[in-house]
Design brief:
The complex is a heterodimer of chains A (688) and B (88).
Chain A (H helix, E strand, L loop, with lengths): L1 H25 L7 H27 L9 H4 L11 H12 L3 H9 L4 H28 L6 H9 L1 H30 L3 H24 L4 H24 L11 H15 L8 H26 L23 H9 L7 H6 L13 H25 L2 H8 L2 H4 L3 H10 L6 H10 L12 H15 L6 H38 L9 H24 L5 H29 L7 H23 L7 H14 L9 H41 L20
Chain B lengths: L25 H18 L5 H11 L8 H13 L8
Chain lengths: 688, 88
Amino acid sequence: MNRLMSLLLWPAIAIIGAFSFAALALGRGESVNAVWLVTAALSVYLIAYRFYSKFIAEKVLQVDPSRPTPAIRHNDGLDYVPTNKWVLYGHHFAAIAGAGPLVGPVLAAQMGFLPGTLWILAGVVTAGAVQDFIVLFVSVRRDGKSLGEMIKMELGPIPGSLALVGVLAIMIIILAVLALVVVKALTGSPWGLFTIFATIPIALLMGCYMRFIRPGRVGEASAFGVVLLLVSIFLGRVVAEDPAWAPLFTLSGPQLAWALILYGAIAASLPVWLMLAPRDYLSTFLKIGTIVALAIGIYYVAPKLAMPATTRFLDGSGPVFSGKLFPFLFITIACGAVSGFHALISSGTTPKMVENESHMRLIGFGGMLAESFVAVMALTAACVLDPGIYFAMNAPGAIIGTTAANAAQVISGWGFTITPDMITQTAKDIGETSILSRAGGAPTLAVGMAQILGQALGGKSMEAFWYHFAILFEALFILTAVDAGTRVGRFMIQDMLGHVYKPLGNTEYLPANLVGTGLCVALWGYFLYQGVVDPLGGINTLWQLFGVGNQMLAGIALLLCTTVLVKMKRQRYVWVTLVPTAWLLITTLTAGVQKIFDSDPKVGFLALAHKFSDAAAQGTLLAPAKSIAEMQRVAFNNYLDAVVCGFFVVLVLAMCVFALKIGLQALKEARPTAHEIPPLAGAQGLPA
Amino acid sequence: MSAESSQGDAAAVVDGDGSPLLITGQAGLQRRLRSLCTACRQLFGMPDYERYLAHAAERHPGASVLTRDDYFVQAIERKYGKGGMRCC
């Protein structure tokens, strides 16, 4: 019976998927319904999960349900806890889903909905989900060790240390770019800023409640926390309309950048129960709730995709990010297709909670499919918007100007007809004064979500509420990431400083902690500030730098997986990781080299730096810089970006060499040489 | 749910094959509610004092256990003390 069901079910899913793709691809000239896009994605996920992940689990990895996992062997009720597979699936998904899959696809929408969709789907099946699944497997077989430790174990101490420096560098860029997304969303938006600001006292209140009033009652505190959050959205409107309060919450970009830097330094120094933990609960609720609501909303409203399948910006002349489809689409989409950062989560808390090896397929592979689905929905929300509105929100002020009239004229000139009235009306609908040049993904997604959720619940009058709800949802987990990430960065920096001067490595020593936190905040703060004052919009530069770093990290994780497969003597199946590794290396190295050396100043860091420093030397001012000093700063920052990008390129090339050397050695061995915990290692007596 | 707790008091929400919430009856309802709460706490990564007590009773019977306050402080510190990597 089951067999018969399966025989009928999978061809049916394949037909539905094929039909959806046909609707997407053949619907030229008329707008396509978003439901086809989402359905096509779901069909791909189901088929990939059913067949490809099963193949990887059974043939490539040969997962063994009888082999005790770290959670079973070390069960301590604290870190190592055997967890139901569906619960852990949700937990893992909540840990990997962040702002990345929301921002990248929105930026990539400038090339139309089709290129982004195709890469999100192809990338997740062949690279992203494979990486998450295999890293989880490798970590579970090594007592839940972290990525850095596993690279050290399997590739050697030098690659291990190199990878750690790489992770720190990528984290600094991520923190800067995430903070930049918040700045772009909140600049000149008293309503938004008030709601985000209100999350601080709400979290403090929850923290004190859980600590002193009703110790440990997290559920109660979270329930009133969520209610207070919703109240703060309504209050935000009152504040924004009040002539006395509104100016207090209307900040410029640089002011917001300083506020965030200060926030990061203070938040990361507070006890964790006071703000980080309660904020994290709120952000997880909102994250899961909003994603589910958006999925239901898209099916319920069934909006049309206003963005064409492809646009003229495939040629690299787009205003949102510069560079051609290859390689920059792959760098821009990043997290929704494959994200190196997931390798850190898949080798972090999740492997310590896996109850049975057979669950890893759902948690690792399936978890990444869900993340990819979030990216598809973000892309959908951006493409539901009128393309004119999309470009008004995402093109930098240096290109479209600062007035609705000017922007409408420029954007209509590109062939996306729009009137100034439409731009101002959209701003009015969402309760903002301007929507121009709010790059960074969050605001665009929020407008798309507001239109979808508004149509489902509350109509036009509720759009402003939904817009600010969406901004709150993103800003909340970005601020949590800034806080938690600064702490991680501090520990890594202290660890490194400890090698230079021992007392600085002592994490119990307050002055050393302050030095570590200060350095971490200063590093990401520098890149943030540079992005905020960047005349070309900041996101344009920083997001691509982040994309290169993140994809490089994925390349490193996949190199580890490839080496482990060879060491396990499964070289027959090595293509499963080798093909995505090769593709990631090709795209990211091409992008990295182009970002540094391309002669077009819109693409190459060095070209732009030369352009500004040469002009400064001759004393001519280049718009939009206003002084020679400002021009020299633009030049310096671009040299710096080139150095960071070059570091990523060199790092990944070095890892390639190490992996190749170890892999070739392992090929010659007759027996498996991977450092796995033996299957029958006793349940007791092992150090945790 | 953990391997041992699924036989114990805090019943499993879902069994290994994924058939959900099929426990019925009066006592079943209470167990169902409790296991739902446990599942939610695990899903959101919240500290779970009841699960800790069950674990302690089973693994280390007779040994002294942490109070709810102390457990909460320790659990939060373990989870967030080093920051915890967040995804982009």
